[in-house]
UniProtKB/TrEMBL annotation:
Identification of the protein by name: Putative LacI-family transcriptional regulator
Keyword Transcription regulation applies: yes
InterPro entries membership: Cro/C1-type_HTH (IPR001387), HTH_LacI (IPR000843), LacI/GalR-like_sensor (IPR046335), Lambda_DNA-bd_dom_sf (IPR010982), Peripla_BP_I (IPR028082)
Record's keyword annotation contains Nucleus: no
Pfam families cross-referenced by the UniProt entry: LacI, Peripla_BP_3
SUPFAM superfamilies: lambda repressor-like DNA-binding domains, Periplasmic binding protein-like I
Upper taxonomic lineage: Bacteria, Bacillati, Actinomycetota, Actinomycetes, Micromonosporales
GO molecular function: DNA-binding transcription factor activity; transcription cis-regulatory region binding
C-alpha cells in the first residue's frame, strides 16, 4: 500500500492553470490577484486538499499565527485548585480560536523559564505575547516589548505596555461598605500577595474603605490559596477573637477561612460574616454559599486577546489600558 502524497504548490498551479508564484500569493492572502484567478486557485486548493506549509508561509508573511500566553507561575500552581488560570486561558483561547490563531501556553516559574520564554519569543516563534499573573517588577514584558514584540498584560505591568485589569478597589469598597452597613465593626482581611497588583490594590481598597468608616484595620497575609486562607484565619482569630467579619482577597482564601471558622465553632454569618473575591462557581456551593466580588476573568482574557489581535494587525489606536467592572454578589455568608 502506498501512502498518498501530500498535494504540492505546483500541483495546485497546474490544476488552476496559473503560475506557482500566483498560487503562493493567493494562499498567503495577497489582495493583488484578480478575483477570477483567486477563485480558480481556491477551487484547486479545495479539490486537491492542499494545506499550506506553515514554515514556508511564515517566511513570506513574517507571521506564525501563534500567540503565547505566559503564566509566571510553577506548573504546580497553575494546575492546582486555583480557578483563575483556567478562566483566563479559556477567555484567551476562545478569542484566538475565533481569529484562527494558535494559543501557545508557557510557564515561567523559574529564572530558567524566563530565559526559555525570552529565547522562544525573540526567535520569532510567536507573533505576540500575553502575560497573566505578573509578580513584582518582572522585566520580561518590557524586555520583549523593547525587542519589538507585541505585548499585552493582565493587571497593570511594570512596563509601558497595554494591559487589561479589573476594578479591584471598587469591588473591595462595595464589599467592606456592605459589611459596615450590616453592623459589623471588627472587620479583618486576608490580603493577597503583595508582589502582585491585585494583592496590593485589594488591600488598599480595604484600608481606605475602613478609614472612611472610622474603623480599625486587621490584616493577615495570604497568597490566594485555600491553605493560606486556613492559616491566616487562625492568625486573625488569635489576634482578635472578637472580630465579626472578614474580607478575603480571593474565593479560595475565603473557603479556607470558612473551614477554620467552622473548626473554631464560629457560625457564619451570625458570628462572623465572610466575603471573598472572584465568584468562582464553587462559591455557590460552599457552606454557607459565599458572598463575593465577581470579577470577569474570562472576559479579561478575551479583551487581552482582542488587544493583541489589534496590535499585530497594525492598529495604531489600541488603548493603553482597559479596566473591567466588578460586582458584589450577595449570598448567605454575609
Amino acid at each position: 500500500m502506498t501512502t498518498r502524497e501530500r498535494p504540492t504548490l505546483e500541483a495546485v498551479a497546474r490544476r488552476a492553470g496559473v503560475s506557482r508564484a500566483t498560487v503562493s500569493r493567493v494562499v498567503n492572502g495577497s489582495t493583488t490577484v484578480a478575483a477570477g484567478i483567486r477563485d480558480a486557485v481556491n477551487r484547486a486548493v479545495d479539490e486537491l486538499g492542499y494545506v499550506p506549509n506553515q514554515a514556508a508561509r511564515s517566511l513570506v508573511t513574517q507571521r506564525t499565527d501563534s500567540i503565547a500566553l505566559i503564566l509566571p507561575e510553577t506548573a504546580n500552581r497553575v494546575f492546582s485548585d486555583d480557578l483563575f488560570f483556567p478562566a483566563i486561558i479559556r477567555g484567551v483561547g476562545m478569542e484566538l480560536e475565533a481569529a484562527d490563531k494558535q494559543l501557545v501556553l508557557m510557564m515561567t516559574g523559574s529564572t530558567a523559564g524566563h530565559h526559555r520564554v525570552e529565547r522562544y519569543a525573540v526567535a520569532g516563534h510567536v507573533d505576540g505575547v500575553l502575560f497573566a499573573s505578573i509578580h513584582g517588577a518582572d522585566p520580561l514584558p518590557g524586555l520583549l516589548a523593547d525587542r519589538g514584540i507585541p505585548v499585552v498584560c493582565s493587571g497593570r505591568p511594570p512596563a509601558a505596555v497595554p494591559y487589561v485589569d479589573v476594578d479591584h478597589a471598587g469591588g473591595v469598597a462595595a464589599a467592606v461598605r456592605h459589611l459596615v452597613a450590616s453592623g459589623r465593626r471588627r472587620i479583618a482581611t486576608i490580603a493577597g500577595p503583595q508582589d502582585m497588583v491585585a494583592g496590593l490594590e485589594r488591600l488598599a481598597g480595604y484600608r481606605d474603605t475602613l478609614a472612611e468608616a472610622g474603623l480599625p484595620a486587621l490584616v493577615a497575609n495570604g497568597d490566594f490559596t485555600r491553605e493560606s486562607g486556613i492559616s491566616a484565619m487562625r492568625e486573625l482569630l488569635e489576634r482578635d477573637p472578637s472580630l465579626d467579619a472578614v474580607f478575603a482577597a480571593s474565593d479560595l482564601m475565603a473557603h479556607g477561612a470558612l473551614q477554620t471558622l467552622r473548626a473554631a465553632g464560629r457560625r457564619v454569618p451570625s458570628d462572623v460574616a465572610v466575603i471573598g473575591f472572584d465568584d468562582f462557581e464553587i462559591s455557590r456551593y460552599s457552606d454557607p454559599p459565599l458572598t463575593t466580588v465577581r470579577q470577569p476573568i474570562a472576559e479579561a482574557g478575551r479583551v487581552m486577546a482582542q488587544l493583541m489581535l489589534r496590535l499585530i494587525g497594525g492598529d495604531e489606536e489600541v488603548p493603553e489600558s482597559v479596566v473591567l467592572p466588578t460586582e458584589l454578589v450577595l449570598r448567605e455568608s454575609a
